[in-house]
Amino acid sequence: MELLTPGTGLIIWQLIIFVGLFFLLSKLAWKPIISSLKEREVSIQDALSTAEKARLEIAALKSDNEKLLKAAREERDRILHEAREASNRMKEEAQADAKKAADKIVDDARAAINVEKQAALREVKEQVALFSLEVAEKLLKKSLADDKAQKELVANYVKDIKVN
């Protein structure tokens, strides 16, 4: 039973060693341990506050990015709308120019046709006049083939000259 009940001398020595170790640790070890724990607590708190600030900044940046993306999309849509309108205007202007050019070509062709028509009518009139003269000449030759008809024609001309 000696193992279960310690002796008084052993208890006293253990108490002396414990108290000495307690004072030694309180003077030398506990202050640095407590100060290092406080430093660690402060650094952990700083890290947490920095992480919270970073999270808030990221949220703000995300919000800004969303705003920028929205603005960029709106700008893109506006530019595309303006480009479509410009394209439509250019197409309409090109169609109008093409219509004007086609109308000018048609008008020029009509003018050329009228000029050719007038020239053809002049030529037909000249041909008709020539044919009429040839017919009249042949008729006169036929009717003035004898001397009596020639003398009557000359007499008629002389009367007409005197009357005028």
What can you tell me about this protein's structure?
The longest helix has 114 residues, at 30-143. The chain is mainly alpha-helical. The chain is rod-shaped. The chain has three helices and no strands. It starts with 7 loop residues before the first helix and ends with a helix. The mean pLDDT is 88. It has one domain.
Summarize the structure.
Belongs to the ATPase B chain family. The chain is mainly alpha-helical.
Main sheet overview:
none
Count of separate structural domains: 1
With helices defined by DSSP (H or I, 4 residues minimum), what is the helix count?
Answer: 3
Secondary structural class: mainly alpha
Please state roughly what percent of the residues sit in beta strands, choosing from under 5%, 5-15%, 15-25%, 25-35%, 35-45% or over 45%.
Answer: under 5%
The SSE order reads HHH
Q: What is the β-strand count?
A: 0
How far do the termini sit from each other?
Answer: 190 Å
Mean pLDDT: 88
Low-confidence stretches: none
Main location: membrane
Keywords: ATP synthesis, Cell membrane, CF(0), Coiled coil, Hydrogen ion transport, Ion transport, Membrane, Transmembrane, Transmembrane helix, Transport
GO molecular function, one term: proton-transporting ATPase activity, rotational mechanism
Organism: Dawidia soli
